[in-house]
Amino acid sequence: MTTTQEPREGLDDLPYNVFAKACPSRGTLEHVTGRWGGLTLGALYEGSLRFNELRRRVDGVSEKMLSQTLHALERDGLVHREAQPTNPPRVDYELTPLGRGIAERLLSLIHFVEGRMDDVLAARRRYDETRGAR
Amino acid sequence: MTTTQEPREGLDDLPYNVFAKACPSRGTLEHVTGRWGGLTLGALYEGSLRFNELRRRVDGVSEKMLSQTLHALERDGLVHREAQPTNPPRVDYELTPLGRGIAERLLSLIHFVEGRMDDVLAARRRYDETRGAR
């Protein structure tokens, strides 16, 4: 399958389309934007981390969920798992070049959202007041 | 809200931080990157749509899930709901300027992922083969 990446107008030429239910790109998009996948990619963008370091950085994730998240990202080729031959074994996780490309775009979205939260919270207050009144 | 997180070049000036469990930005990020929220924002980026048009565009979404998704996006101030005084009433959904800013960044991520799916699928095959062997 060949990729012909083009401006937005020509996107229907792409062989993959997240708007189609059966397209595998939808699953990958979910891995990278899921609750823990996105935060994991964002955390690893700053540099490689060990499992427990990652767990502290991604506040609120359980050991099981982080493990599942890392497996999905590793399988998609976005995260590289490096086991050091030490005793006890030391395992580092880092982004692959592909994972970095995705994390960059995700962080651009994250920072935009963080920077607009005052507006979002003001909109929520207005919405809740209006709904209370009608 | 004050953030006491480690260096992230300049970003620590921001009062909101998705890496903190209790930060409201995490909820908004989930609304815009959730399975249906992201696709809904992406679909509306092309122009305003009626409910049923949206439902056809976001392949696989149920009426109930689309309705919940639109409410969350409207409450966050990302989607505007315009009820026309016709009979039967006609309701259009469109992005607010804030929603457009978010959708742009989300679409950049979506198109990047769609454009790299050959690599992702090749990585999955390698991963599954290696795991089968060990």
Question: Rough shape of chain A?
Answer: globular
Structural class per helix/strand content of chain A? Answer: mainly alpha
- Helix and strand sequence of chain A: HHEHHEEHH
Mean of the pLDDT scores of chain A? 87
What is the number of independent domains of chain A? 1
Q: What's the assembly state of these chains?
A: homodimer
- CATH class identity of chain A: Mainly Alpha
Number of helices of chain A: 6
| Spatial strand order of the main sheet of chain A | 1-3-2
Descriptive report:
The structure is a homodimer of 134-residue chains. Chain A has 134 residues and is mainly alpha-helical. The first copy, chain A, has 6 helices and 3 strands, in the order ααβααββαα. Chain A has one domain (8-133): Orthogonal Bundle (Arc Repressor Mutant, subunit A). In chain A, helix 1 (24-33) crosses helix 2 and helix 2 packs across helix 5 (97-115). The radius of gyration of chain A is 19 Å and the shape is globular. The interface between A and B is large, with 60 and 58 residues.
